[in-house]
Amino acid sequence: MSDKDILGVAFDASRTCVVIPTYNNATTLAGVITDVLQYTSNIIVVNDGSTDNTELVLAGFPDIVYIGYPRNVGKGWALRQGFTKALDLGYAYAITIDSDGQHFASDLPAFMNKLKIQPGAVIIGTRNMKQSSVPGKSSFGNRFSNFWFKVETGISLPDTQSGYRLYPIASMQHMSFLTRKYEFEIEVLVRAAWRGIKMDSVPVSVYYAPKEERVSHFRPFKDFFRISILNTLLVLIAFLYIKPSRALRSLFKKRDWANFFKEEVFNVHEPHYVKAMSVGLGICMGILPIWGFQLVTAIFLSIVLKLNKALVILAANISIPPLVPLIIFFSYKTGAVWMKDGGGELTFSNSLTFESIKSNFQQYLYGSITLAIVSGVLCGLVTWVLLSLFRKKTSPVI
After folding, report:
1. Separation between Cα atoms, residue 391 and residue 386, nearest integer Å
2. Average model confidence (pLDDT) across the chain
3. d(CA 186, CA 183)
4. Which of 45, 74, 138, 257: CA 20 to 30 A from 388?
């Protein structure tokens, strides 16, 4: 049995297929399909509303699975249709390869070998972006995409724009997506990473035709604009929901609370100023008049500033219900400093609510911001002093 026969058996055993999305690439499509057929017959071609003679080309390959529709929607939609069909046919994995001849079917064994090592992972074919034939805009776009992917997921990948990929579609079948065009290939990576699906890569070859022969359906302004909008949305979701929720889950998953406080809260390897800033930020966020968003904002800032998330969360809980009337009262009194007439009067009681200060909300607003900043700074300084004194007391005498 030849190596290619063995690879064909591996495709069947792992329930892997090859999905080829195509749009007006009739001149190269036949060659791509022919090359892939040398390794596997598990091929799904998605004709994304081509207006050339793509259908005539595909008529020459009656044994492959064909999906077609009359109107061009976008590469992302074509991939999604291919994945859906692959799942219906019982496949667990799908390798996507472009129909313009940039990718080489000879790299399929690399994906299958990596799949043995990393089952269930998204595997990306990493191109050599330093070769002279790579267009400058592609090199820049790749760096741009890699940067935002790391911001959104915390994961570093060498080539997030490569369309040559292996997807664990069985693990992704319940995921929902917003995009239908080129930006889908960014969204699917980010959402898969958020779901906890592993990311890996393999080196692949790439061919860029000479400029005068190159066919590209990428529209620089429109597509780059959509990609920028998508990245903005993904960053907001990442920092306002994904990362804060992960931080909270990591806290509540701790079963040994003694070790949790030792490792996370009283981390001996963490500088004192980080702990002090964490406490100060938590106190500040707990007092700021952003009720309902205090904890989320505190976690978001702790991630951005690389502070101790456990300390920030603990300190932010200064705004627990029993202390809320006290915070409101002192915020209102502090605000009197900013009022020309000395501010209004307010009597402290356990029934003190926001309704009590409704008549002079400006005084409360100014006061709460001032109190939050001052309290945060003071608590941070006190924390730093206490930690410094504690370190001196516990230092061995030589």
Report:
1. 9
2. 84
3. 5
4. 257
